[in-house]
Amino acid sequence: MLGQSPEAHVTAARKAELSGDLQGAEQQYEQALTLRPDPAIYQRLGLVRHLQNKFQDAIPAFEQSLKLDPNQWPARLFLGIDLYKTNHFDRALVQLKVADKLRPGDAEIRRWLGLTYLARKEYLTGLAMLEALSSEQPKDLELLRILAENYGVLGTILQNKVAENYPDSPAGLQVHAQALEVEGSGAAALDVYLKLQNMQPNRTGVREAIERLKANLSEPRPTSPEATSAEPPTPP
Predict the structure, then answer these.
(1) Which residue, of 139, 160, 196, 216, has the fewest CB within 10 Å?
(2) What is the pTM of this model?
(3) In 137-155, which positions are buried (b, 16+ CB within 10 angstroms) versus exposed (e)?
(4) pLDDT digits (tens, 9 = 90+) for 147-161
């Protein structure tokens, strides 16, 4: 009978997977495991849960699989991915490093390692890993998007550190001026840019910023619709 044979449950689970019934496959794998613990079946259970976005539920399945067979690099990889997906970045990094040792150079492992380093705010390490991967996969637009986004994040962090630690330096003054301009404090930003220009007349972007702010500040302010539409008072 079906309920008496782990192999029968595994066969039924495979058929369910092929038909797209991941929940049915999950149930069949669970029944097979009640009859016989097996690392490959635990791994398949973790995968069908992962494919249903049940990341938290997939984690114990992969952990059980690795207890029975620690050298399964796919289980290590997906355990790392699911730990990443549930914001356990430190634990994810441990598993992904082991997966990388088991299968050196694998592109998918390197991608998730890089993403995990970025999530841990280790930007230089993460960006270096993903840059190397991008050079091998130049048509991967998602990878390029991730790199561009995190270059921007790192740049902002570095700028803020400069502004905080060296507020009177040229770099600190420029960050301060840019922040004032973004906030809409054009006159205050112009004052800082002028100070910076006196300090470093040829600093990149400063002259253009001064000209832009002077032009904006010299433009007449638009009058309100009520003021422009109101008729002049009738003389007595």
Answers:
(1) 139
(2) 0.70
(3) eeebeebeebbeebeeebe
(4) 999 988 887 787 777
The DSSP string of 48-83 is HHHHTT-HHHHHHHHHHHHHH-TT-HHHHHHHHHHH
Query: What percent of the chain is modeled with pLDDT above 90?
Result: 63
Instruction: Calculate the average pLDDT of the chain.
Output: 88
Q: CA 200, CA 126: separation in Å to the nearest integer?
A: 35
Per the CB < 8 A criterion, the answer to whether 120 and 154 are in contact is: no
* Residues 7, 41: Cα–Cα separation, whole Å: 10
Tell which wins on pLDDT, 219 or 190: 190
Distance CA 31, CA 10 (A): 9
Which residue carries 């039924």 as its tokens?
12
- b/e burial code for range 27-54 (CB count within 10 A of at least 16 → b): bbbbbbbeeeebbebbbbbbbbbbeeeb
Closest CA to 6 of 40, 24, 31, 43: 31
**CA distances (Å), 4 to each of 1, 7, 12, 31, 36, in order?**
5, 9, 13, 10, 11
